[in-house]
Write a structure and sequence with these properties.
179 residues; alpha/beta; six-stranded mixed beta sheet; 9 strands; 23% helix; globular; binds inosinic acid; binds magnesium ion
Length: 179
């Protein structure tokens, strides 16, 4: 285990198993449709590869990048799309993916951007949900695990761009981010 990790919160096996279940659920819900899965860079990348391989439907993928002018372990409400989808998405059934919903501000803003673009539908899937930290109304349509208010890293989640490549969700030692 990485030295800066206090505890493994979700090990690789249960994490992947749960993501596969989410894929099966999405496959059922969207039966007969084509799906456009849009991942929010960079955090959603590991979740996205696992999830999309478990979705048995005609599926396209794309990415966006958002900046939220926050620092350290907090994001802010000021969300902008800094890298956009490469194709016209009008009329599509869009499934937005992120690694974690915390205050809810990021996905809330991104969802509004997409609704304004005449898509057929927008739903949200998140790997993790820190429910008790919510500042705006944001109920993901698909959620992998509800987790406590701890700063976690791994499987795409970073602290200062590190730890994304860990194959599990770990709680970062507090001395690492100086809280
Ligand atoms: P929100 O806008 O507050 O919901 O923040 C969502 C974003 O904050 C996520 O996409 C993550 O990039 C980041 N974030 C929130 N909590 C954590 C965490 O525990 N570890 C790593 N990143 C986090
Ligand atoms: Mg992040």
């Amino acid at each position: 285990m990485n030295n800066n990790i206090r505890e493994v919160l979700i090990a690789e096996e249960p994490l992947k198993k749960r993501i596969k279940e989410m894929g099966a659920e999405i496959t059922k819900d969207y039966a007969g449709k084509e799906l456009l899965v849009i991942g929010i860079l960079k955090g959603a990348v590991y979740f996205m590869t696992e999830l999309t391989q478990a979705i048995d439907l005609p599926t396209q993928i794309d990415f966006i990048r958002v900046s939220s002018y926050g620092s350290g372990t907090n994001s802010s409400g000021n969300v902008k799309i800094s890298f956009d989808t490469t194709k016209n998405i009008a009329g599509k059934d869009v499934l937005l993916l992120d690694d974690i919903v915390d205050t809810g501000q990021t996905l809330n803003a991104v969802r509004e951007f997409f609704i304004a673009r005449n898509v057929n539908s927008v739903k949200i899937a998140t790997m993790l949900d820190k429910k008790e930290r919510r500042l705006v109304k944001m109920l993901p349509d698909y959620s992998g695990f509800i987790i406590p208010d701890e700063f976690v890293v791994g499987f795409g989640l970073d602290y200062d761009e590190e730890y994304r490549t860990l194959p599990y969700i770990g709680i970062l030692k507090q001395e690492v981010y100086g809280k």
